[in-house]
Amino acid sequence: MPMTKVLFEEHALQTLSALVRRQRWFRSKSKNCIAAALADFSSFDSEGSSFVLPVVSFSYDDGSSEAYFVPLRCSGHESGGPGIVFRIKAGDRDLNFSDALYDSTFMRALLSMMEKGETMDFAGGHASGFSLAEPGALLKMGKEQIRVISSEQSNTSVVIGRQAIYKSCRKIEEGINPDYEMPEFLYARTSFRSVPRPLGRIEYTNGGRHAVGILSEYIENDGDCWTYFLGRLTEALRHGDAAGTCFEYIPVLAGITSSMHNALSGATLPAFAPSPVTPADTDRWAAHFRSLLHSTCSTLRRVSGDLNDHGRALAKEFLDREVSLSSLVSPLRSLTDERVCMTRIHGDYHLGQVLKAGSSFYVMDFEGEPMRTIEERREINCPLKDVSGMLRSLDYVISAAALSAGMAVTDARVESWKTGASELFTVKYREGYSPSMPYLPSGRADISAVLQFFLLEKAVYELDYELNNRPDWAVIPLVHLAKLSAASPDPS
What we know:
By secondary structure, this protein is α+β, with helices and mostly antiparallel strands. Helix content is 42%, strand content 21%. It contains 16 helices and 18 strands. It has helices spanning 5-11, 13-20, 104-116, 137-141, 178-189, 225-239, 250-265, 279-303, 309-320, 322-326, 333-337, 374-377, 384-404, 412-431, 444-469, 475-487, and strands spanning 33-46, 49-60, 65-69, 72-75, 85-90, 93-99, 119-121, 126-131, 146-149, 156-160, 164-168, 171-172, 198-205, 209-217, 275-276, 341-342, 354-357, 360-363. A hairpin with a 2-residue loop joins strand 17 and strand 18. Helix 7 runs parallel beside helix 14 and helix 8 (279-303) packs parallel to helix 15 (444-469).
């Protein structure tokens, strides 16, 4: 028999909430949790197995809260294997719980739910399945073997045979998730196909919409571009092999990026329609940058003593330029002068978000920056923000390869590769520019100036991240910021 909400809340919630907070995909490990509650609950039986579907909410001392969807298999015998596994005693019953995503019966139930468009009732809401695949295709997939991708950190993905991949959205957020919205739009409304085909999704509703699962085509691949590039570049630096830089793939990456932006520039749906950049938009971007700069400089002042000699010298140089850097927002004016358009963008674009499949590449993970709200991730923006993300990623992967090869990130050969990669990507991106609505300034100098602003913003964001997570890597964005500072006049 399926477990009731009351029984689960009384006996299993405390144990589960403690285990959830230790999972890799739990977002707020650094926050002080003051309460955990069972926000909603459902259960069902399938093929002789029982499953419970708790939505667990966490409240923090800063006033924030978040909810996680944690499907579990429930059985009366010992559970083993990976994932969340715990045991409770409820009355005269011993109950064992394990992560349902490792269970093929559970995955077949989800595929059936999407295929048939079924709805499952929860105590306070319901979940509904939607299919975008050919009739009967999802039921056939249910016969395939499943494999959970153990390396994923923010969600959990399950490969179904070699046909599909199901992403379980662990943290559920209210709103239309761009991770399914963007691929569905690109497939239905444009000719852009460098994205895995969307096949279905499951949404949970309790007054608002929350994506809990997204099904996409599985692409046979060589891994993401970050992993591939890092391996190739590290070996090239160790052996002095300039031919091993994988720069031959940069024009393809640039072409895919401009093709994606061109496709989005022709959108007519209200949620995707381009709109001219206004002074209010550039003022908002400038204010956000100055706030980020101030916060990052405050952090850097506090922890700069923990950096090595080179890092401390770069940190001092950066901090001395804080005031002048905060004024480097004037290039944004060219966007309003020419009535350049904002469009929907990827929003978190880097090498790790592009899958390499032989000589082909596929853009994935349209979720956007995880620290932003759903509404912010769905906003139209300047496509050069995506370009800056990829350029910084190329710089990063070359720097990371240098560190792996035991070289300085400022080594002449490393710096030469960074410059070459950036110039090649930028040139090929501009060559692919063919918009329905103009999203770049007309002059090359204006494009370069606006791009420099977004590169500056991205590097400051990276510095803030590294200071809080990987202080040894803070030198990577600091080196780039030093170059930007040297190229910018100091008004004082």
